[in-house]
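Record filed here:
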Amino acid sequence: MAAPFRPCDHCAKPAVVHNTVIVNGQMNEVHLCEDHAGAAGIQMPGQAPIHQLLGQLAQVAVTRPRGPACPECGHTFHDFKTSGLLGCPACYDAFASTVGPVIERSHGGASEHIGNVPARADDANQRAALLQQLLRELETAVSAEQYERAAQLRDRIKDLRPTTAARIDGTP
């Protein structure tokens, strides 16, 4: 049911603003038309002053993410540049092309651990790295239809795998 018609307190136009004002403990109702509400400084819904609209637009432009974002956490490369921190492990993959060189520079050109490693672990790491390299070469050989080369790589991979598995199990 529609609200009853109320005229403006200052003229006969329909009131669009209805306020209850308490002055000296006494409650008074104020009814104003659009013109008198604007003159009283009351802002109508949907009629923001231009400086507020421009300020809101500027705020949106500032908060807009810069560049691609990590699919897991939403962290952007701009966030990384600002804070020096990535948001999650998936960020390393999401920003590999841009973060990789930064990490290499900060670690003196190394992208992998180059510190001290126990001899037994070092041997296992070398075997694992060789295995990964051979797997990449095998994939390249198969895609290039170099089947003889692929067979040789397959045999080398097969020879390396039992040794790696034996090391992990703890057997010689």
User: Anything to note?
Assistant: Residues 119-143 form the longest helix (25 residues). The chain has three domains: 7-42, 64-115, 119-169. Helices lie at 34-39, 50-63, 77-83, 89-94, 96-106, 119-143, 147-169.
